[in-house]
Each structure stands twice: as structure tokens, then as C-alpha cells.
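Async update (no meeting this week)

Hi team, since we skipped the sync, here's where things stand on the single-chain job. The sequence we agreed to prioritize is pasted below, unchanged from the tracker. I ran it this morning and attached the output directly underneath so nobody has to dig for it. Comments welcome in thread, and please keep replies under the output.
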Amino acid sequence: MYDFILRLPGLLLAIVIHEFSHGYMAYMLGDNTAKEAGRLSLNPLKHLDLAGFIFLLLFRFGWAKPVPINSINFKNRKRGTILVSLAGPLSNFFLAIVIGYILSEDIVSNYILLNILIVALWYNIMLGVFNLLPFPPLDGSKILASLLPTKFEYLFYKYERYLYIILIVLIITDTIDKILSPLIYISMDILTKIII
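Output:
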């Protein structure tokens, strides 16, 4: 129960900020789809997928409800897709910097709150790094596809279901940890240099 209490606030914060940022960026770029779906909200219930949330709590990998985006509404479809895709992970990194700064100032004396912030810091970095991997349905795959020439972008989306399988295999075999761990370590090192 104590472990659950430590994990829950940071996890909810990371997920909600991530999904809200996707929707808000799309809205700023002229797409009202997320707003009309009620997803421009900081209410966790608007973004949580129950199964994905439980997986995140238990296995540190999971998913939220995808924010509905219609890239046709962007003035520049590729540019808009990249910005919307980046908005989620970057919001997690920004939040990690804020939390890291609070921790570095040593202004939190409550032991439980301190541990909640440490877990929240980890979740935000992990979620930001994980979502930048170039495997569907992660944000990194949309960024990669949008950077490709249109012909190859089409092929990427046509065969993306096979990339889903690669991601699942990486998770099931724990190979994903070998990919994420050094990236998280590098992110933590960069964070430390920013806040110090």
C-alpha cells in the first residue's frame, strides 16, 4: 500500500500532463478534435485507460487513452504531427526539471512527499524517454514517419503493425530495459546539469 501511495501521484501527473500536452498543442495548431472529445482536461479520468494504468503500476509499462488528433487540420501536416508528438515527451522532461529543481533546493522535509517527488521525477523521465522510441504506437514513431519523404511515410504506416510486434517482444523479453536504462541515465545526467 505504501508503495502504491508513492507511485500513484507521480504516475497520474506524468500521464495527465503528457496527454494534455498532445491535445493542447494540436489545438494551438488548429485541430479542435481533442477539445471536442473533452481531452483538453487535467482530469485524470479523461485520460486513463484502466488496463494500461494497472500495467504501468505493476510492470512500469502501460498506456493511456490516445488523444484524438486529426492532422488534416494542421496547416502543415508533417510539421504539425511532429510538434504534437513532441509535446507529450517534452512536457514530461519539463516537469522532471521542475521536480528536480524542487528536490535540489532541499525545501521538502516531509519524508513521504519527498519520496513521492522522487518517484514522480523517475516516471516523467521514463515516460518521456520511452515515448520517443521509434516504435508504434509511441510518439517517436510518428516523429520518424513525419520526417520521412511522403512515399516512405506511407510505407511506414502501411507496415507499422509489424513494428508493434517488435515493441511487444522487446517488452516481454525485458530487452526494452537494456535500451531504456542508458537513455534514462543520460537524461538524468542532463537534468542534473540543468538544475545545478
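Quick observations from my side:
The chain has one domain: 2-195.
Residues 2-195 form one domain.
Reply here if anything looks off.
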